[in-house]
Amino acid sequence: MLVNLNDVLQKAREEKYAVGLFNTIDTDMLQGAIEAAEQLRSPIIIGTAEILLPYGELRLIAPSVISAAERASVPVVVHYDHGLTFERCMEALSLGFTSVMFDASSVPFDANAEQTREIVKIAHAFGASVEGEIGHVGEAAAGDELATDAYTTVDEAVSYAEKTGVDALAVAIGTAHGVYKSKPELNLDRLKALRGALGTPLVLHGGSGLSEQNFKNAISNGISKINIFTDLCLAGCDAMKMETEKGSGYLDIRAARVDKFRATVAEKIKLFGSAGKA
To answer: Do the beta carbons of residue 144 and residue 108 sit within 8 Å?
Structure first.
């Protein structure tokens, strides 16, 4: 069942669970993610990100992702993550994505709000939802998870939500993308304040590698959507390594990858509390 963020995140916000976004750059990841969601009767968000397009071009993967979502027995949002350019966001919408995340977090606040507002107007005309970002979620490899001066402030978040009309808002509270070099420290007081000041569902980027308690704390204090990709990549590598050491052929390796992806997504669904919410 193909839906957008508004169909799944408002309920998640009200009932204090989170829906996972699992970026799926190939049909192995896609199959594992959808099957896990169906088995656990959970809504799910799947898609890809602009930075991942060299590994799975948009026009190549869009038909399979959208078709899988339409056929699924649970709500599935097809989301274009971290869209960095207007042109690519428009391409995703024209190909049938039901949601886009426009990431202008690297530019000054006013420019971010102005550019995002234009994306929101167009996406809403398509019947699609938009996620924006205020603050900066860095790269773990650079140690950016410790850059507290980039945390989202309440005043900026409220102003940004009002000016843009975004349907979901990614906030910076201490996470980073990739594999962490050091233990991330989440600013839960800031998160709680953001949740209290906003009616917009909040999103946590850089979820891979956080502890179970980190996730539970983030969800209980206001996070409604959590992005996962690195954990899927690590799971796929583990499956390939194990099967290669066993001397397995390609098809057995492929099956093992799907099994590992399914198990990884299922683990996160249970942790996020979205099982049985479809």
So the answer is: no
Tell whether the model's pLDDT for residue 182 goes beyond 80: no
Q: Is the pTM of this model over 0.85?
A: yes
Check whether 234 has a pLDDT greater than 60: yes
Evaluate whether 115 touches 41 at the Cβ level (below 8 Å).
no
Grouping H, G, I as helix, E, B as strand and the rest as coil, residue 162 is: helix
Contact call for residues 18 and 43 (beta carbons, < 8 A)? no
Tokens of 124: 């809403």
pLDDT in tens, 103-140: 998 899 999 999 999 999 999 999 999 999 987 654 44
Nearest to 18 by CA among 212, 158, 218: 218
Separation of alpha carbons 194 and 207, rounded Å: 18
Beta bridge partners of 48: 80
Q: What is the mean pLDDT of residues 180-189?
A: 70
Rg (CA), the chain: 18
| Per-residue model confidence (pLDDT) at position 24 | 93
Query: Residue 166 corresponds to which tokens in the numbers above?
Result: 């975004």
Q: Which two tokens stand for residue 159?
A: 């102003």
Q: Phi/psi class of residue 241: alpha, beta or left (left: φ > 0; alpha: ψ in -120 to 50)?
A: alpha
Amino acid at 203: V
**Which residues are 170's β-sheet partners?**
133, 203
Q: What is the average pLDDT across 213-232?
A: 94
Tell me if 101 sits within 8 A of 130, measured CB to CB: yes
Q: Active-site residues: which are they?
A: 81
- Return the axis-axis angle of helices 230-245 and 27-40, rounded to nearest 10°: 110
